[in-house]
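Bug #77: duplicate submission created two jobs. Keeping one. Sequence:
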Amino acid sequence: MRTLQRDRAALVVVDVQEAFRPAVEGFDDVVENTRRLMEGARILGVPIVVTEQYPKGLGHTVAELGEVEAVEKACFSAARADGFDLDGRDQALLCGIEAHVCVSQTAHDLLERSVEVHVASDAVTSRTDANKHVGLHKMEASGAILTSVETALFELLGAAGTDEFKEVQRLIK
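Kept job's structure:
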C-alpha cells in the first residue's frame, strides 16, 4: 500500500525556524500548510517529530506552529539527530525547510531504513524555487512519494462522516 495510514505514519516537521523567514521562497505558505498538517496529525493521533537546525544560530520553530518540543540537530538529516524517533512507525510524512538539503537528506536516510517516505510538496521550500524542485525530484527519484497537505490529511482520515472528518475538513477550507 502506498497511501498514508494513521497507525503507521508519523509527521516529521524539519527546521521551520525564524531565520528562514526572510531567506526562503513561500515561507508563509509553508508555515500555514505545516500548521494544518500538525493540527490534522493531532486530531488523528499521528505522532509529530519536530526538528531544529542549530537553534542557537537559526532560532527556534516559528511561533505560528505553537509550543513544540524539538529535537535539536547540527547534522542536516533529521534521521541522524540524537533523539530522533518515529515511535515505531514505518511511514514518514515530511514537511519543512530546505527541500534540497535537510528535508532531502532526511528522506534519503529514512528510505535507507526502509521507511516509506511521503513528502508534502506544498509544505516544503528552499531559498530558490529551482532548489526546491531539485530536492523534490531527487527524493521522488529515490523512492519518496510526493503528495500534498490535503491529499495526506484525507489519506490519514480514511473516511467521511465522523467528527474527525469535520475537524480535518475545517482545516482544508
